[in-house]
Amino acid sequence: MHLMKYSPTEFLKIATNTAEHFGFRTADTIKKNPLCKNCEVSMPYTITPSDEKNNAEQCLIANSVSNFCLQNLHALKSPVLLYSLEQLADTESTAVTFNIFNVQKSIAEAILIQAGRSLMQELGQEDHVVRINSLGDNESTTRYSRELTNFLRKRLDTMPVSSRELMKEHPFLALRDLIEQDHDLAYRSPNPLEFLSDQSRKHFREIVEYLDMTETPYEIDPKMIGHHEYYSDALFSIESLGTKDTTLPSIAVKGGRYDEFFYRKTRSRVPAAGAVITYSNSKQPGRIPKAKSIDPTVYVVQLGFGPKVRSLMIIDQLKHAGIPVRHDLASDSLSAQLRDAEARGVRYTVIIGQKEFVDQTVILRDMHERNQENISIDAMVRKLKKQLATV
């Protein structure tokens, strides 16, 4: 499978299907939710010309904040998984943004990475690597920034002129410049991971555990620092490996957590993490595809960190098998998920608890017949494919 076979419109169609499968919805769809009856009062926010200028480079975070506030989605106190399709100004790039609001836990980053990887695989980019880093929370960043400033100031004489000038604005900007120039100081500078608070270290460790458990190829890259005004805590990118033909379209995934940026722009504490998947070197799409309204007959239910990660893998596996699903991976309540499955009238629920996680099985419950069985994951996928093919 090769990337060049997809037009920008086809890319957006595949991206839309991936977004919907992993539980992301457009703002229009979310606002139809009965819980959104309070989505009428707008949330004030401030986006500066500087934010607009940096928007394309910083994963359209400013656009995502604007979208969330303009659509008044803050009225929803439950997790909000939002996606939008974008054409990047002044570039030949088409993009889709995935954003998760109201989820403080690391499952947010796990969903974003898995959805990004799934989309890349569907576009033929099987050979890729996830790069991750963390700048930590405010406490962590303050400590790291202080150490970095001291380190660079002592070595101003050996820094390129451009980096010295950027030091006047922010040490992170100077470090980014040194990294871009492949300067020796960039590799000798302090490591942000050594300055993480306990909370940020736990958050980052969970993301690494998720990557290990899913056998995701990854590298911890302390020199991936993003822009100091936009990212906080975890950052990640997914990059294709192998030879790069510049005449063909390319796909890249960048993302991270931006709770602090959201707070500065709205003065409201809303956990926020996002990713942008950019399809570069492509013409403008001929049309913007609309999401198909599918009513899945399968609901994946989980309880606990390990089961959440296993559920994410199963959701991806079901996607490749052509089986649409519903799920609420951000939920920590088994009963709430089962109630949701019942309310949606699904035929099957796939349940993963701690025992199933250890045994590498699932409970497959037939909601109509009111019976259930403990079954291997592969057998469950085969059975669902067979059962749903006859519906």
Short description:
The chain is of the alpha+beta class and 391 residues long. It contains 15 helices and 12 strands. It folds into 3 domains: 218 residues, BirA Bifunctional Protein, domain 2, CATH 3.30.930.10; 56 residues, no CATH class; 92 residues, Anticodon-binding domain (Rossmann fold), CATH 3.40.50.
Give a verbal description of the structure:
It is a single chain. The chain has 391 residues and is α+β, with helices and mostly antiparallel strands. It folds into 3 domains: 3-136 and 197-280, Bira Bifunctional Protein, Domain 2 (BirA Bifunctional Protein, domain 2), CATH 3.30.930.10; 138-193, no CATH class; 298-389, Rossmann fold (3-Layer(aba) Sandwich). The protein contains 15 helices and 12 strands. The protein has helices at residues 8-21, 27-31, 49-54, 61-70, 107-122, 138-153, 161-167, 171-180, 184-188, 198-213, 259-266, 305-320, 334-344, 354-359, 377-389; strands at 80-87, 94-101, 128-134, 218-220, 234-240, 250-257, 272-280, 298-302, 326-327, 348-352, 361-366, 371-376. The strands form 2 sheets. A 7-stranded mixed sheet has the order 1-2-7-6-5-3-4, with helices on both faces. Strand 1 (80-87) and strand 2 form a beta hairpin. The protein is globular and about 75 Å long. The protein starts with 7 loop residues before the first helix and ends with a helix. The mean pLDDT is 87.
Secondary structure layout plus pairing:
Layout: H1 8-21, H2 27-31, H3 49-54, H4 61-70, E1 80-87, E2 94-101, H5 107-122, E3 128-134, H6 138-153, H7 161-167, H8 171-180, H9 184-188, H10 198-213, E4 218-220, E5 234-240, E6 250-257, H11 259-266, E7 272-280, E8 298-302, H12 305-320, E9 326-327, H13 334-344, E10 348-352, H14 354-359, E11 361-366, E12 371-376, H15 377-389
Parallel strand pairs: 3-4, 8-9, 8-10
Antiparallel strand pairs: 1-2, 2-7, 3-5, 5-6, 6-7, 10-11, 11-12
Helix pairs in contact: 1-5, 5-12, 7-8
